[in-house]
Amino acid sequence: MAKIELSNISHSYNPNDLNPTYALNPFSMIWENGKRYAILGPSGCGKTTMLNIVSGLVKPSKGNVLFDDNDVTNLITEERNIAQVFQFPVIYSTMTVFDNLAFPLRCRNFSEEKIEERVKSVSDTLRLSTFLNMPARKLTADQKQLISLGRGLVREDVAAVLMDEPLTVIDPDLKFRLRRNLKEINEEYKTTLVYVTHDQNEAMTFADNIIVMDQGEIVQVGLPKDLFERPKTTFVGYFIGSPAMNLFETQLHSDNSVKINDTTIKTNTNLSKLKNNNIKLGIRSEFVKVAKDESENLLEVNIQKIEDFGNFKLLTAKMGQLTIKSKINREIEISNNTIKLHFPAEKCCVYQNNKLI
Amino acid sequence: MEKLYKFLKYTFIILWTVFIVAPFLWAVSTSFKDFQSVNSKVTYIPWLDFEPTLEGWRVLVKSPARGGVDIVEPYFNSIFVTCTASLISIILGTLAAYALSRFTFKAGFVRNNDITFFFISQRIMPPIVLSIPFFIFLSTIGLLDSLLGLVVVYIVLLMPIAVWIMVDFFNRVPKELDETALIDGCNPYQAFYKVVLPNSIPGLIVAGMFCIIFGWIDFFFAFILTFTEVQLLPVKVVALNSSITPWWSLSASALISVAPLIIVAFVVERYLSKGNLSGALK
């Protein structure tokens, strides 16, 4: 277990070309010991590259990787004591489940008693105990992925367990249980877990800290709540949450208010220093409510459709060209075609050039 | 429609089986004949059509001094040359193929694919083109007309097959498997022989089978590069022929020449169909 520090890391897969393209733009980050991190972003944004740099499968073009303040940039993978789980299950198909789980320990010359003890403990956690003597290739895809996971967890002293979308092949039901399992393992063994995913729900429920990436850039690092309520860029607002954040082109109106079409919306942000250029207002559909007795921040809209998702209703409305989505309680019945929606001032985020003010 | 399809299918299978098996049966039958039964009239069934004799088979093990053509020694020569050359080809070919599949090589304009093609191109040339260089090469190093010389030449002929099959095979083994082994604490060599190699047994078997077949049946180089000291089976079988074609001993020698290949085919087929070679990943 270790604190992992990435210092001024950047990476290009064609560093010698005249115009190298960067898979990762320069960044620095510290992963605290024993915490759970999720790296979230669309496909091809550099998530996997980042993991491979930590595990040593890829050497960064620039920058240093430090484990507990020791520079490991030039250490090869097997010297780093890292565990990594890939998207698709990788098993040693010629070995039994037991031998699969024991393999990382055997490679590091642990005693047979110790191996026995660790494999038993891990296989109990992952509910693989009954399969230990079966050939690993006979298991189903999700059981195979459990083996991959188990090989990552079997060493107690790993610096971190890196997981690259490990639950893609696993049933939703089991997924839920496994995520909880991983949390328990993290709490019990204090293992640093880093979890790459493009599924925001997975990231939100799993991690203490979420790292959002886009096009080789780290866009925001923070708690799930921050990412949800105060997305630092419009990309984060768009990428996190379902449906995506409502975003409107607006004009500045006063020190703390903007205009959407002809409606004034007050915010809690100080807008006095802004230029009236490329300003956007963002608000989560969760915070947009049907107005009751509020007197300001009201938008009169035409209802387009109402979808019932079981636990909530999703209301899609139009005001001129603008589309507004709102998650409302199921109990609320709407009979009119035209209603008023309320934007709470404290939930409104103002963006200039797609960056949060 | 369904019935017609079935009918056609089985008709075809039966015809094809007859086409494949008939020459063997004929050879078996002929090998037990004598001069009279072959040349007088067409006969098929022993005891009914003709009186079977073991003369055709006896000739093959009798020493030349006693009027036979000893094919026992060439037989073991062939086994030795084929197995040694195949084994070395597989070992070297597998290592080369793994390197070509996993690492990137650059030498001027030469890349991995060019190196792979270089290997395969050895088989594109007609053998006759290679015969003179091989002859000069072997005579220079003094290995003409020797088993070792043949082994060297056969390695050149068989290794491209091994490389070709194994590169393709390794390309289909996900590189995550190697990476996982590295992460689990293997060094690259251990990752290769502890993890990748055991997963590649099907490929090794196929490559080995091809090497054995192509090594075993080669006549051309065995004929050109040997004279009196050593002889390989195909050359000896052809040498059986004389002014009166001895169909009986030719048939017998043909049968025992194919026998090892048939055994290899059966063993491999059983091993492959056990299913324990598939489904390595996912």
| Gross geometry of chain B | globular
**Proportion of residues in β-strands of chain A:** 25-35%
Would you give the CATH topology of the largest domain in chain A?
A: Rossmann fold
Please work out how many helical segments of chain B DSSP would assign.
Answer: 13
The helical percent of chain A reads: 10-25%
Low-confidence stretches of chain A: none
CATH topology of the largest domain in chain B, anyone? MetI-like fold
Strand percent estimate of chain B: under 5%
Quickly give the CATH architecture of the largest domain in chain A. 3-Layer(aba) Sandwich
Give Rg of chain A in angstroms: 24 Å
Radius of gyration of chain B: 24 Å
Mean residue pLDDT of chain A: 86
End-to-end distance of chain B, in Å? 39 Å
The helix tally of chain A amounts to: 8
Secondary structure tally: strands of chain B: 0
Number of domains in the coordinates of chain A?
2
The name of the CATH superfamily of the largest domain in chain B reads: MetI-like
- CATH architecture assignment of the largest domain in chain B: Orthogonal Bundle
Question: Secondary-structure blueprint of this entry?
Answer:
The complex is a heterodimer of chains A (about 350) and B (about 280).
Chain A: E1 4-12, E2 22-31, E3 36-40, H1 47-55, E4 62-67, E5 70-71, E6 83-85, H2 97-107, H3 112-125, H4 141-153, E7 161-164, H5 172-189, E8 193-197, H6 200-206, E9 209-214, E10 217-222, H7 224-229, H8 234-239, E11 246-252, E12 257-260, E13 263-266, E14 279-283, E15 289-290, E16 298-308, E17 313-319, E18 322-328, E19 338-342, E20 349-352, E21 355-356
Parallel strand pairs in A: 3-8, 3-9, 6-7, 7-8
Antiparallel strand pairs in A: 1-2, 1-4, 4-5, 9-10, 11-12, 11-14, 12-13, 14-20, 15-19, 16-17, 16-19, 17-18, 20-21
Helix pairs in contact in A: 2-3, 2-4
Chain B: H1 2-31, H2 35-39, H3 55-61, H4 72-102, H5 112-124, H6 127-140, H7 147-172, H8 175-183, H9 188-199, H10 201-217, H11 220-224, H12 233-239, H13 247-273
Helix pairs in contact in B: 1-13, 3-13, 4-7, 4-10, 5-7, 7-10, 8-9, 10-13, 12-13
